[in-house]
Amino acid sequence: MPRFNQSNPVTFTLKGIPGLEDLYLWLSLPFSFMFAAILLGNSTILFLLAMESVLDKPMYHLLAMLLLADLVSTLSMMPQVLSLLWFGDQDISLDACLLQMFFIHGTSVVRSAVLVAMAFDRYVAICDPLNYTTVLTGSLVRRLGLMALAKGIGLVLPIPLLLRQLTFCQTVIAHTYCDHMAVVKMACGHTRPNRIYGLCVVVLVGGLDCLLIGASYTLILWAVLRLSSRGARLRALSTCSSHLSVVFVTYGPGLFSALVYRFGRSIPVHIHILLANLYLLAPSVFNPIIFGVRTKEIRDLATKHLGHCPGT
Hints:
Layout: E1 11-14, H1 24-51, H2 58-87, E2 91-93, H3 94-127, H4 132-135, H5 138-156, H6 158-164, E3 172-173, H7 180-184, H8 192-225, H9 230-238, H10 241-263, H11 269-294, H12 296-307
Parallel strand pairs: 1-3
Antiparallel strand pairs: 1-2
Helix pairs in contact: 1-2, 1-11, 2-3, 2-11, 3-5, 3-6, 3-8, 3-10, 10-11, 11-12
């Protein structure tokens, strides 16, 4: 079996979705639709957040960070996927593969950290509303954004650096993009440090962030239940509905994909790969829809701008 080292740069072949090669043109249609929806939806909400002073609030600043992370993740992944589906372009160099991996996994970490910051925002808004503006200052929101970015870079950067030290016995990756574990399986020799570090990142990000979000909503629910009227309780909970929906869309597909990967050994490989793509794309597709539909301020401003479009 051939071996490749750093003096002989590796070019990987992305196999795509094994077993569905004859359907690539048809599969490109939903992928293209999702790509267009992500670009249009996220760009529209970001435009409104940048242009409208009424949206100059901590929650919307955090939303802008979330949508930017979604855009970077999508732009890191989708051009390669569509090029594979449309033109059969399967080759990707080692450096390009590691760079793509860094952005895809790094933005996932940033997205998760921003969701934790949003949970803190909702906690302060409901449990300590009188001090909301003094607690959630612009300076604090900027620090939270920088912390999310630092967390994404700090946790994910070692992953491609560790992979860069390996030699590779195989170069055909059964995937549509450069996923960490898919690339680790191509390596020769001792990959235990890579596997352990990758698992630690998953546990630290998914486990700890979900725990923090859960703790925030436990305190929120406790505060809401102590409100005197049913109407007040419903209004308080409605302010959390958008964030809770995004949390479900972000972590739900990932959890389902992980369960299928661990326990669905008999499930065909193309199902695993499609779920992995869904895990990355679903939040980017639905986040702008959720906030656009469920947030009255954004919905009203979007309607106003659409009403000013020529021909409407």
